[in-house]
Amino acid sequence: MSVSHQRETETVPVRVLGHLKPDVASVLADSGIPADELTHLVTQWVARRNLAPAMEAAQTPVSPQLARSLQARENWLRDVESEFGTYSRQEVAQLRGAKGTNRSMAGDLKNSGQIITYRRGNSDRIPAFQFTETGGQIRSVMPPLIRMARESGWEDLDVLAWLTNPNTYFPGGTRPVDHLDDVELVLAAASDAFEAQ
């Protein structure tokens, strides 16, 4: 839902996920709270409303450290998904030219060390940066990178974190994912990282 908030003579749209009753939307629009603060307040309220029942349902106490860690992981995955996009198993099959919805293709590619995947809810997600922009070919850096990672005991989510976080091995502290076409550079950096663990 979108709520317009008037600040002096300027109207600023505030995006709110979900549904607000018209009277609540009206109160928010007339509140006089700056749009950026209003967006933050509404976002925090929605987050608390969604998170509290899940925490209440937990059978054991959750430490603040664990809660922060899980939320940081969630925020990071959302950022990765927003920046690079992901495919479902069916979308990978279509991208690679399979007829119908061949769900086993992505599993076969993962099992043979061609791509990385991770669980999201009850389905696998496949980071889109592993494929070329045209033709759906797997980037040549991925299979040797995955082989090195698995030989060092790294899980797919560890590889995803390494690929998408800044790294001093790369010019300007950029990320490995920014250099996937420079196979030698990425594999040299990966070798250092994987052997250090």
Give a verbal description of the structure.
- This protein is mainly α and 197 residues long.
- β4 (118-120) and β5 form a beta hairpin.
- The protein is built from 8 helices and 5 strands, in the order ββαααβααββααα.
- The chain has a 3-stranded antiparallel beta sheet with strand order 3-5-4.
- It is globular.
- Mean pLDDT is 84; it is low at 1-12.
- α4 (89-95) crosses α5 and α6 runs parallel beside α8.
Mean pLDDT, rounded to whole units? Answer: 84
Count of separate DSSP helical elements = 8
Secondary structure category:
mainly alpha
Number of extended strands: 5
| Radius of gyration, in angstroms, nearest whole number | 22 Å
First-last Cα distance: 47 Å
Helix amount, in percent? 40-55%
What profile does the largest beta sheet have?
3 strands, antiparallel
Indicate the proportion of strand residues. Answer: 5-15%
Low-confidence stretches: 1-12
Question: What's the quick description here?
Answer:
The protein is built from eight helices and five strands; from the N terminus they run ββαααβααββααα. With 197 residues, it is mostly helical. The strands form two sheets. It has a three-stranded antiparallel β-sheet.
